[in-house]
Amino acid sequence: MIKVLLAEDQGMMRGALALLLDLEADMQVVAQVAAGDRIVPAALEARPDIALLDIELPGRSGLDAAADLRDALPSCKVLIVTTFGRPGYLRRAMEAGASGFLVKDGPVEDLAAAIRRVLAGERVIDPGLAAAALSAGPNPLTQRERDVLTAAVDGATVSDIAGKLHLSQATVRNYLSAAIGKTGTRNRMEAVRAARQNGWL
Fold it and tell me: How far is CA 49 from CA 6, 69, 76, 78, 145, in A?
């Protein structure tokens, strides 16, 4: 029996996925969580064979949780299942140790087949997204530039960002300027939008 952990913040979607996977003769959903910071504790308790993780979760992103899970429970495979098929997300998922990446608009039979393939040692990646990721190239932003853009998401001032990240205002301006240049945008909000669309944040 394949033991599955589901991490999905939308209750209806999580419940539907659990019902559909439980209909598979060789699968059992042993844990369901709605927040990214619940993934590792739930996995350590339920000991799943595979974790299906959404990316945009409250508490901690599925991409960050994938890396945490790899360290905490190396025997558990990770399959990212998301609405957001962005090349940068795929690249980050692979760097975090995920064994697969699927976009949610596919049929549930594909998901069940992907789970079996991942557990058989294969990598399973949405083909269209794989092609887009290859043409998009690597994330040009440094970790600090990503931190500053993430802090700027809600329209925070330079002063707010500096206080939050324990940086000087001049340093924040430098990081913002570099990020705007690398994303080919005109201001910080456009840079945030471009970075999000590419899956770099």
Answer: 11, 12, 5, 9, 35
For residue 4, list its beta bridge partners.
Answer: 29, 50
Q: Are 195 and 149 in contact (CB under 8 A)?
A: yes
Which two tokens mark 154? Answer: 């809600």
Tokens of 49: 């064979």
52 contact partners, CB below 8 Å, separation of at least 6: 4, 5, 6, 7, 8, 17, 79, 81, 111, 115
pTM, to two decimals: 0.70
Terminal Cα distance for the chain, rounded? 36
Please report, in tens digits, the pLDDT of each residue of the chain (201 residues total). 999 999 999 999 999 999 999 999 999 999 999 999 999 999 999 999 999 999 989 999 999 999 999 999 999 999 999 887 777 788 888 889 999 998 887 777 889 999 999 999 999 987 767 656 655 667 788 999 999 999 998 888 999 999 999 999 999 999 999 999 888 888 989 898 888 877 788
Q: Are 48 and 31 in contact (CB under 8 A)?
A: yes
Cα–Cα distance measured from residue 89 to residue 85, given in angstroms and rounded to the nearest whole number:
7
